[in-house]
Structure prediction request, 1251 residues.
Amino acid sequence: MSTAETSAAAPRKSELSTFRAIARIYPYAKPAVPWIIGGMIAALAAGVVSLLIPIVLQGLVDGPLTDGNPVGIWPAVALVLVLGVVEAAMIMLRRWLVLTPGTHIEARMRNGLYAKLQDLPVAFHDRWQSGQLLSRAVSDLNLIRRWISFGLVLLIVNIITILIGIVVLLNWSVWLGLLFFVTSIPIWVYGYVFEKKYSVIARRVQDQQGDLATAVEESVHGIRVLKAFGRGRHSLLKFADQAEMLRTLEIRKAKAIAGIWFWLVLIPDAAFALSLLGGVALAAADQLTVGQLLAYFATATVLRFPIESIGFLLAMTFDTRSAVDRFFDVMDEVNTITDPEHPATVERPAGRLVFEDARFRYQDAPGDQRDQLDGIDLELEPGETMALVGITGSGKTTLTALTTRLYDVTGGRILLDGVDIRDLTREELRRRIAMAFEDATLFSSSVRDNVLLGRPEFASDDPAVVAEADRVLAEALDIAQAGFVYDLPDGADTVVGEEGMSLSGGQRQRLALARAVAAKPEVLVLDDPLSALDVDTEALVEAALRRVLATTTGLIVAHRPSTVQMADRVALLEEGRITDVGTHSELLARNEHYRYVISSLEDEELAQAEREARDLRLAEEASRVQEATARESRVIDKDGFERDGEVKR
Amino acid sequence: MSVVGVAGEERDNYTKDESRQIRRRSLRLLGSLLRPVRGRIIVAMVVVVFSTALQVAGPALIALGIDRGLPAVADNGDWMPIALIVGGFVFAALVGAATIAWYQVMSARISQAILIDLRKRVFLHTQNLSLEFHESYTSGRIISRQTSDLDSIRELLDSGINQLVSGLLYMGFTAGALILLDAPSGLVLAAALIPLLMLTRWFQVRSQKMFRLTRVASARLIVHFVETMTGIRAVKAFRKEPRNAREFGDHVESYRDANARVIRLFGIFDPGLVLIGNVAVAGALLWGAFRVVDGSLQIGVLIAVLLYVRNFFGPAEEMAMFYNSYQSAAAALEKISGVLEESPSVPDPTTPIDLWQAKGHVRFESVRFAYNDETVVLPDFDLDIPAGQTIALVGTTGAGKSTLAKLIARFYDPSEGRVTLDGVDLRKLHPKDLRRAIVMVTQEAYLFSGTVADNIALGKPDATREEVEAAARAVGAHEFITSLPNGYDTDVNKRGGRVSAGQRQLISFARAFLADPTVLILDEATASLDIPSERLVQEALQTLLADRTAVIIAHRLSTVAIADRVLVMEHGRIIEDGSPAELIAGAGKFAQLHAAWRESLV
Prediction:
């Protein structure tokens, strides 16, 4: 990660010139540098050789052709042929030297970007749409590779070739050479102007492409909703707006390119025309031979394509600059959730999870708003199962996400077996605490791999390990009531996820649960893991989970009384704080808010009836108490009176 | 094996017939894309032909200048011919440059028009394809069709076509000018064409296969990438990062390898072109030089010949570039045309029946539904839901409840029999009326990027803010929405971002309330709600459903209380049918379930 850290310290892109901005990829390109230099040398050799051919032609025209000596033709043509073959060989060499190392740079950058993205906290991913990330990982890096192995090499070599060519031209005739040089100046000037115009528009085009990709993604991921409401047309209109925007930008970009093309075609041709005039004048004055004039035009022709290519290569360079900027937009992101420098480790893992005044607020939360989690104090003893109950939006999911540092606390701390979780490596922490999310994500892989995700040690061919893995898998599937797996086409080896079979919400949830169980953690954090299950299955899962939770510390977000029943104690989350902890029946008896949150519709009626009955009882009691107090007060009164009497006395 | 639609897309061993079939369908697509812009294409062609002719005139003018202008000046001091020639040259340069710039802008307009047409077509077609297709084809692939594949086509249109057209024309005009100037040199060029064509053919055959491999490799890469980014929580929680890095590294490597192979082909093709060009120049020089010596060729013409022969091969490298983008675009077009060839298994009716005022009477008539011959979900299903009735569907996972719901919402069509709304077969009902009358809310509550209000308004795009808020209030979502940073204008960001699953469901409920359908289908729509929210939703439902037809699938039996009628399903059949009170009082499956559920409550 050293590259990311060094680059994070580098200045922001707006301050950098195009060259320095692109130079930031040096750490990735470093191993390829000798190859690229080699390629440039080969390319330069090809350029020089192509410039030598006109010199041979000049000798031929002014020698054998003027003398009418056919014998001299053979060696000159043979030389032209040899030079031609060498030029082709050099071009081949350039390609072979540069292109494979170029693909390695691309691969390195892609892996680097991916590693960085995996490392960045969830909060980052909440902000960034995956379409934007994808366009960085694919098309931007593609462009960078092509630029390095093609654009960069040709840009530099063509400029050198042009310079050498101009020297050769000066050699034929100072006046003609100067003419060619002077008429080339507008191209460089315009190229500079072009940079400013083009790089802005190129970046906007790339961003708009990313937005369009996001629109596509949403339309595909949200297809069910769009279909259910018949909003295909509506989303098409939105998409069409985005696409129209892209079209407008692309045409603006094309106009910029057309502008540079105009000069690139006009200037060499105009230079040829003027050279023709000058050449004829010089030849008429006998200051130039016909052979030299021919060589001049032959050389200028050789230079034509390098000169024309400059515009295209510049455009590519500026595109690449914005691609590099976009790459570093991600790479420069400072990771706020990292491993400590000197990680501690849990000496005697037992599964004691303690929240001490744990706080969390979103960075962009308004200043006057209280913290989302406003000082959580909660202790889970080893082996204890705690249910977490609260209304929607009370912060239950956030609280669970804090335990494995998907988000970091913004105040207070969380201790696992006495160690602040921020002092553990993320690897150790997430090994000890496993989670099942309500929104169950499966990856494109076999069911087996998905369930055994938390047990990387099972990836082995050793029969003993495989047998153990099979046992754990079977047990986890059994607990999660995921027997349906065995009915899939390839059993537990069936591929699921994006590229495989699609499973129902309930099936996915059970696999996610099996995954958490199979990880055999010290602490199991379950975020409403049974919401998509039917009543029968839920009951079976709960019964099986109880066995697991007997020995494992559990933190379970619960919406239903039945889920709460699995817990030893219940913590009530209210307004960002734990307001009450106790057993289900204790809370039911003493906490009004708890009853509001957990008792379901009919239960509510029951409770209402109970309350009424109790109220009645209370009312009766109260009246009895009243009578009693009335009696007592009379006694007191009497006493008081007596005391008064005493005082009086 | 079939190659119709997207079938066999990942194969790279097509038979001749299959290849031809695929090529034909992508050519058809291409033709249909070009047709609307053909007028503009013709204009652009004329402009580019004119422009190229002017650009090619250069060497001939040089020859003219040396052979006619120079003697006139040297011998007679007559500057007129050379002045005319140079004047013509400058004029040709100016007009040639202006027209090529014009052509650039024109061709950008054309290609953008084609692209936007294709983008919209694929987008709309994707939206029209049935859920069944989406479930089997997967979102990653459909996304890469619409992003990276369209990108390759864009690249082809952007630069590739320009290069081809101007390159081919340039070569053609150059050859023409050469033959006019000196026919024998034309023979040298013709001889050079033979190895040129052979080399190109060799390249074409070899590269086609490899380009297809790169597309497959990039699609895999994209799927993996998107899956990781959308599932980042699970990735982190289960320490999948190192394994992901390995897997992704493998994808990157095979993509790199595929790319490197293609590039290596170019490493032979491109220098090959240069070699042929240079040998041709030497050939033309040899023959021309001898003719200059024996006086049958003027020296100025020899110069022009050499310039033309060299220029002829000038665009060759760009043509190779064209081939690069052409190959990936062709592969992309093949896949896109495959997707477009998929006919929606739930097609819009050709002669739709309007139903302005739906009453909500839903009927299943001898409906059979099967994914294929082996998995029959509903063997033979009859059901009559009178208008205004609220039905609760109960049964274990896989009993066919969701299928039933999807058939009413017309996400699927029955394999046999028919589903009707107010006596009209859903397949004949106008889609607009169908979607207005029937709305389904699923457990997976997807939020689109945009504000909370936008997301609710999806139920009724022209809704006012008051209506949006009223809908949110009705389902009890108003509270939490107003507590968000910007209230209703809060951007929900990527995939719901910081809105919890329960809150997402409330938003999607509000969406359905706003849509105000005649028939409402709730498929596990309250699963993620907490009890107070569920209570609110249920109260709202009781008012909302009073005069509506509703089908509710819920695992929680609490929902059943508000139903007029309960259907217990098993293996695609109804095993119990009656009012909640009747069934609870009975001794059937439902009575058992209900008893168990009561037990679990306290």
About this structure: Chain A is about 65% helix and 10% strand. The CA atoms of residues 60 and 76 of chain A lie 6 Å apart. The radius of gyration of chain A is 39 Å.
